[in-house]
Amino acid sequence: MENPEVLGKAGKKVVILGNEAIARGALEAGLGFSACYPGTPSSEIGITLADIAKNTRKFYYEWSSNEKVAFEACAGAAFSGVRSLTAVKHFGFNVASDSVFPVVYTGVKAGMVFVVADDPQGHSSAQSEQDSRFYSRMGMIPTLEPSNTQECKDLTKKAFEISERFELPVILRTTTMVNHSTGSVKLGAIPKPKTKGRFVKDFERYHSIKPILQKMHCVVLGKIQKMEKQYAGLNCIEGTGKTGIITSGVSYQYIRELGLKNIRLAKLTMTYPISRSFVSRFLKGLKTVIVVEELEPIVEDFVRMVAKDVNPGVRIYGKDILPRVGEFNCDIIMNAIAPVLGLRKPDFSAQDKWLKAIKIPVRKPVLCPGCPHRSTFYAVKKVLGAKPVFAGDIGCYVLGMFKPFEMQDFFLSMGASMGVTHGIEKVSNQRTVIFIGDSTFFHAGMPGLANLVYNDPKPLIVVMDNRITAMTGHQPHPGTGITAMGEKCKPIDIEAVVRSFGIKNVRTVNTYNQKELQATIKEFAGKDEIGVIISRGMCRLLYRKLMKSQGRKLPKFRINPAMSVRCAQHAKEIACPAIQREGSRVSIKEDMCWGCGLCAQIFPKGAVQPVAVGQASAKKGGKK
Amino acid sequence: MTYNVLLTGVGGEGVLVTSVIVARAALLDGHEVRGTQLHGLAQRGGSIPTHVRFGRRAHSPLIPRAQADLILGLEPIEAARVCYFAGKNRTSFIVDTYPIRPSSCNITGETYPSNESVKRMLEPFAKKMVFVDASNICREKFGNPIYGNVMAIGVALSAGMLPIKKQSLIKAIKSTVPRGLEKNMAAFKMGLEFRE
Question: Are strands A288-292 and A243-248 parallel, antiparallel or unpaired?
Answer without folding.
Answer: parallel
